[in-house]
């Protein structure tokens, strides 16, 4: 397991200090990346402060808006989306942003300088769980721009996950955690609300070799391919190959992913025949699958769309969906094997 470190004053490591240390791995980063990550940590603190009191303020429940995903927008979706955009639009660190909540790319306002980084984000993940006080999260991915200067472009946003500079998420759960990787391992920080700082609590997270849970929405099993059904039977020990894994499914990707990362196992949201408009399942490549796959890869795990590494996929659209299998490499590769045997011959 990845036990949290114990605290004494000399080893208090804030996220700022950690990023500065990490930055040595990015000689070209001139402190801008540190400041950008610090802005995201600030956004996380603000969103955490709102979500912990959501029940007391008029920010639970849904708005009247339907987003580009065709989903009802929750008030906290909007609040988180606004918070992240506003904390980053004026800093001169960003060339362009894209959010799950907006159909098109989000340009930097003319009156502000543009910078060299690209920020893609799911402002609030797990919206369907907000009103039930289940864990929710924010997911983000940072790239270097590929366009030369001025306003960032769609091409800046459509980069393969393997080009990512930083992938991270903030989990608003029993405690608020920020987990990120800048390509030099995966590290977890826990918010100490008494001082308003994220402190290093889980250095160098590695997914445990021994898988503990599998995580999938069994409710949609009738919509799965034969290969996914056979893979799930395998995880349940039905073919006698392995001892059954225990099932955990919260329905918030960040929470299901975080448990998989720390406990070992696999999370998957497969392609399904539930909705003809979404033949490849529900999760989005740019701001859900890619950042989490980058983090898992850096923690010794693996992520696939059932056929190939998620991080190799060249995105074609901002909100394109992708099947996601993420966790212990041996389990994800087993899923690929079942899909190869039972589905690819179709
Ligand atoms: P979001 O709230 O950002 O739209 O994401 C919701 C996603 C993800 O958090 C979770 O894994 C999945 O929806 C759950 O979907 P089902 O309810 O179909 O299982
Ligand atoms: Mn989401
Ligand atoms: Mn969301």
Primary descriptors:
single chain; 346 residues; alpha+beta; Fructose-1,6-Bisphosphatase, Chain A, domain 1; D-Maltodextrin-Binding Protein, domain 2; five-stranded mixed β-sheet; 8 helices; globular; binds 2,5-anhydro-1,6-di-O-phosphono-D-glucitol; binds manganese (II) ion
Structure, briefly:
By secondary structure, the protein is α+β, with helices and mostly antiparallel strands. The chain has helices spanning 15-23, 32-51, 75-88, 154-157, 226-235, 253-263, 285-298, 329-342, and strands spanning 62-66, 72-74, 94-99, 106-107, 117-125, 136-144, 166-172, 176-181, 186-192, 197-202, 213-215, 246-247, 265-269, 302-304, 324-327.
Q: What do you see in this structure?
A:
This protein is α+β, with helices and mostly antiparallel strands and about 350 residues long. It has two domains: about 15-200, Fructose-1,6-Bisphosphatase, Chain A, domain 1 (2-Layer Sandwich); about 215-340, 3-Layer(aba) Sandwich (D-Maltodextrin-Binding Protein, domain 2). It has helices spanning about 15-25, 30-50, 75-90, 155, 225-235, 255-265, 285-300, 330-340, and strands spanning about 60-65, 70-75, 95-100, 105, 115-125, 135-145, 165-170, 175-180, 185-190, 195-200, 215, 245, 265-270, 300-305, 325. An eight-stranded mixed beta sheet has the order 4-3-5-6-7-8-9-10, sandwiched between helices. Strands 12-11-13-15-14 form a five-stranded mixed beta sheet, with helices on both faces. A hairpin with a 6-residue loop joins β3 (about 95-100) and β4 (about 105). The protein starts with 14 loop residues before the first helix and ends with a helix. The structure holds 2,5-anhydro-1,6-di-O-phosphono-D-glucitol (AHG) and manganese (II) ion (2 copies). One manganese (II) ion binds near residues 122, 125 and 127.
